[in-house]
Amino acid sequence: MARTEFIRVRVTPEEKKIITQKALSSYRMVSDYVRDSALEKEIMVFKGVDEIAKELRYQGNNLNQLTVMARQNRIDFVDFKPFMEVLERVWQALNSCLQRAG
């Protein structure tokens, strides 16, 4: 359902700073964070996810570069073993975060 209604709320500069920091630390936009909080949805923050996301971005960049080179016929064969090893480590790290949270 489309969100078409607005709710305006006045806050102090300090309250705005706190709400913004909480939203950023939960990887949400302020509007999403406030909506989820008001609707009493569970907001979970996993420590260590920043490093995992950083590694996934690196691997995504690497795969993108390989895709471009393959389309340009600059490479014929790609060894995916290193990518699979990294993805396995990322998967283990994510599972570790989930176990600590639960």
Task: Tell me what you see in this structure.
- This protein is mainly α.
- It folds into 2 domains: 8-44, no CATH class; 49-101, no CATH class.
- Helix content is 65%, strand content 0%.
- It has 4 helices and no strands.
- Helix 1 (13-25) packs across helix 2 and helix 3 (49-71) packs antiparallel against helix 4.
- The protein is elongated and about 60 Å long.
Brief overview, please?
The chain is an all-alpha fold.
Major sheet summary line: none
Number of strands: 0
Instruction: Measure the end-to-end span.
Output: 31 Å
Q: How helix-rich are the residues, as a percent range?
A: 55-70%
Question: How much of the residues is beta strand, in percent?
Answer: under 5%
Mean pLDDT across the residues is 86
Shape: elongated
What is the string of SSEs from the N terminus onward? HHHH
Write the layout of secondary structure elements.
Elements: H1 13-25, H2 30-38, H3 49-71, H4 81-101
Features of the shown structure:
mainly alpha; elongated; 102 residues; 2 domains
